[in-house]
Amino acid sequence: MRTETVPDTTTLDRPTWTALEGSHATRVDAATAAHRSRRGRGEAHPVEDFLFSYYGTTPSQLRRWHPGPGVRLEGAAALERATWKHYRVVGDAVELDVAAFVAARGRAVEFIRRLLSATASRPARLGCFGLHEWAMVYRAGEGDVRHQQVPLRLGQSATDEVVERHQITCSHFDAFRFFTPDALSRNAIQPTRESQVELEQPGCLHAGMDTYKWATKLSPLVPSELTMDCFDLAREIRLLDMQASPYDLSDYGVEPVPIETVAGRTAYVARQRAFAERSNVLRHRILEVLGTEVH
């Protein structure tokens, strides 16, 4: 990893960087407006809340603009930004203290680098058909379904039959760990946290959404523009994830991708393939920030 030094520094005058900061805030506000409005009314959304409840980054945290390494912001020394963690003052300017960040987060940086590099190096596996969500409700008892505010589209018995007619091949530990006890042994792979680097592959929808998680874990090292690109992709992937799920989301205006049918599986794979390609682009961009090439 070569994040310890930043040989080239770009200096931005205050009007330039404040304009960039403002554009970022506008982008985040637009992307999070519906969530913030629902939160204010105490309303939940089974599709869109996931990016905030599971990944844990709040709209206000996402709104904070970070230019990334090698960018010096003129006129920022007297501003609140000068007190932000992992920043340092240079004259009247402020810049990211890369060495301090690496010293504090080195183990996390190395893990993310290894995981993204390994994932991007593998071919996408496209035969899972989103059955991980079905496995999470397989033979679930009353009250055990994760999204209890929405019904199962086919009912419990028919949902169980879909699982039993297909081979589950989930490679993502953070999806697999939510399988019901009866579904665990039906998975062809038994992922663990320890095998995560060895198993993750770009065809996995959850691995694609996780590009957003890794970008936020690397903040403020990762520029905010890249973080928001990861957020936008994660939001699109989450929609497909739930469209292909066993839940009836018609009350939320979400049309199903019925993976229990040939047409549904075909449609799922086409979108899954496109997401795999786009998520790999983001993995390479994050790795570029980390100063790592993928071979």
Can you walk through the features of this model?
This protein is mainly alpha-helical and 295 residues long. It has one domain. The protein is built from twelve helices and four strands; from the N terminus they run E-H-H-H-E-E-E-H-H-H-H-H-H-H-H-H. The chain has helices at residues 14-41, 50-53, 59-63, 98-120, 131-135, 155-165, 173-176, 181-184, 196-199, 205-217, 224-243, 262-289; strands at 10-12, 71-73, 87-90, 93-96. Helix 1 packs parallel to helix 11 (224-243) and helix 11 (224-243) runs antiparallel to helix 12 (262-289).
**Shape, please?**
elongated
**Strand order, largest beta sheet:** 1-2-4-3
Give me the secondary-structure category: mainly alpha
Return the average pLDDT rounded to an integer: 94
Biggest β-sheet description? 4 strands, mixed
Protein name: 3-methyladenine DNA glycosylase
